[in-house]
Amino acid sequence: CVDSSIALQPSLAAAGMGLKSLAPLHALAPLHALLLLWALAVGAQQCNAMEEAQADPKILGFTVTAEYPHDPHAFTQGLVFDRDCSNVANCVDIFWESTGMYGESTLRKTVVSTGEVKAVIPLPKTVFAEGLARVGDTLYQLLWQTGMIYKYQIMGNGSSAKQTGEVQGPLKDGWGLTSNDSHLIATDSSEVVYVIDPATMQIVRKISVHDGDRPVKWLNELEMINGELWANVWQTECIARINMNTGKVTHWMLLKGLREGLQARHPLQRDLDVLNGIAYDHVSKRVFITGKNWPRIFEIVPKVPGPLLSMTLSQVRAAASQLSTEEEHAAHQLTVILHECDPDIASVLMQSPGCK
């Protein structure tokens, strides 16, 4: 970024303060001092924004810190962490979960520690449930290919949920859904993220997600974590971490190994499907990850990987054509990045209805 004193010169001149005659802040008139502070703040923000816009996404791995049972027949489409405090002296960690497939879609409440399904609300056989989000004491469940949204009232400090109605959302197709506490945040398979007013179901903002100049599509399960949007890219083992101000992918998280590990531990389960489930405990700062028909939910923390994976995507693209046949491990890791997280190469295609 350019030197801030140079960048700020027009602003300071407009405020009547030439750079050569700058006095200490305490010697300036109060208005001039305020203008100087404002100009410095604006300049710093512009520098940070420019640096971020030019930076490649960082590549992150993960560490599993705990794992929990999960219904292996739950085709997870949305996952929300919550607490059941109906017994105030003993609150219980729970998930609200949206499961999909025609004829099998549900809203359910499960216990985090045991995986026990405490309650199930079946949906009509003609609908395919997708993402799930909470705003206030209301749960919103998005439907695939219609954009319809089911609403549920959370009762008794999290003891149960009751369906209170349905409303047509502003999207023609429904994929991921989360919230920032006041607004719903949804996707429709494109690179666009929609911010929706839950009171009016009107779109109030659109953000185009990109990695450099490449649009990032197929954003599926979503979660807001510390002001960032985390989005699972459909049919991959990658999570894009997205700046909601710019739409830029700031990090790619590689979750390679979770599904393979489950397949090795459960060789008779043939319907283990793709990664698709992100939930966040805002109090204890825990991240939970699962997938469709996965028998476990994993608690993970991001980590900076080894020297190879700490390369930026630009460096990976440049290095990919220079690998020797002996560098099998490196080639495998590069393939993971290039084919699963690189929007240039990702070959995700829409499958037949009923298979999403």
Describe this structure as you would to a colleague.
- The chain is of the alpha+beta class and 356 residues long.
- Helices cover 18% and strands 40% of the residues.
- It has an eight-stranded mixed β-sheet with strand order 16-17-18-19-1-22-21-20.
- Helix 5 packs across helix 6.
- The longest helix has 25 residues.
What are its keywords?
alpha+beta, 356 residues, four-stranded antiparallel sheet, disordered C terminus
In short:
About 20% of the residues lie in helices and about 40% in strands. It is of the alpha+beta class. It has an 8-stranded mixed beta sheet with strand order 16-17-18-19-1-22-21-20. The protein has a 4-stranded antiparallel beta sheet with strand order 2-3-4-5, with no helix packed on it. Strands 6-7-8-9 form a 4-stranded antiparallel beta sheet, with no helix packed on it.
Major sheet description: 8 strands, mixed
Count the beta strands: 22
Spatial extent as radius of gyration: 23 Å
Structural class: alpha+beta
Strand line-up in the sheet with most strands:
16-17-18-19-1-22-21-20
- Write the H/E string, N to C: HHHEEEEEEEEEEEEEEEEEEEHEEEHH
Q: In whole angstroms, how far apart are the ends?
A: 44 Å
Unreliable runs: 1-28, 345-355
